[in-house]
Amino acid sequence: MTTRRIYYDDAFEKEFTARVMYCEVLPPDVNSGITGSVWKLILDRTAFYPTSGGQPNDLGKIGDANVLDVRDEGDEIIHVVDHRPADPEVNGCINWPRRFDHMQQHTGQHLLSAMFQERFGLPTVSFHLGGEICTIDLRGPEPSAEFLEGAERAANQVVFEDRPVNVRYGTADEFAKLGVRKEVDRKGILRAIEIEAADLQPCGGTHVKSTGQIGLTLVRRCTKVRQDWRVEFVCGRRAERAARHDFQLLRQTSEKLSCAPEDLAAAASRAVAERDENFKNCRAMQGRLAEAEATIALQTVPPDGNGFRVVSRVFEGVPVDYLGFFATAFAKSEKAIALLAAAEGGHLRFAQHSSAGKDMSALLKQVLEKFGGKGGGTRDFARGRLIDGSQAEKAVLLARELLPGL
Length: 406
Ligand SMILES: [Zn+2]
Fold this sequence. Notes:
about 400 residues; alpha+beta; about 30% strand
């Protein structure tokens, strides 16, 4: 059975009639993501495009059945449908917005690939048409920003000239003589797509009739993927959506920064510089405040019988770095020991003056064994974090109790 492919000759045929040649229930296939009973349907002719050559399959209806997948299997096109058609004669109708979108992206890919190759000498090694973004993988040296912009401008120039996109048939030799972009090693009559005076490329996909129908072409990011350069692009309706989305982002961000969209880069630089400056100042102030608080604590905590001055405290509403500043400042005095925790997050900081002769790391370990958590450090300074922050008070109390035994 050979299915006649209507889309080869007319990619704009959205509705068609056909005769059912074969229909059989398919075994469940978890890999395809299709659940429930489905049928394999072969027609004598179809406008449904199967997944191939980087272009996804069409969706739509055959009779009252939904088309869930379309596959290219040799001479036959397999439609996977959710109903068995009641009549041997059926009407098919493809989801046109989806197909036309694919045609815009796919023809745009031919055009962009031609520009990359002819003007900049970078061949396309693969193409992917995704749900949101399309990509071309280029081989060769890294394309610069000017290069990408140049290819985009050249492609759009051909779009604005609205050149015809023709289907041609011929042998590989005949196409080679005509200057085909990528030669193929296949026998027999091949199908090729010609963008007038711009590109000739063997292809079995669906394309628009003239370059104007591709619509605006936008080249987006370029990233390295293995040895190649993956260029993201969008055409037509997708380019319109991308441009609209970009502008909305610019507007929202400029409203946040209270500036015009064109002043965003300068405003963002200023905001980042201010943030960095504030961060630096804030840390310096924390250090000074911690020193002052530690001095007061040293004055109010009397030495015990052995001359140790121990402060044990759970801080609330302070950044975790503040604990470290306070512990370090307090432990600058002879025989001073600080056992600190933060009520939020369960952070612990144990510090001592080396003359105290205890082991803060060992103390922290014992506390964490009891309450659970992670941490470590040296004999004079240890930092950790409890799994359950609500245990901070009890953890500091335990550390205080264990201290004399160390
Ligand atoms: Zn194509």
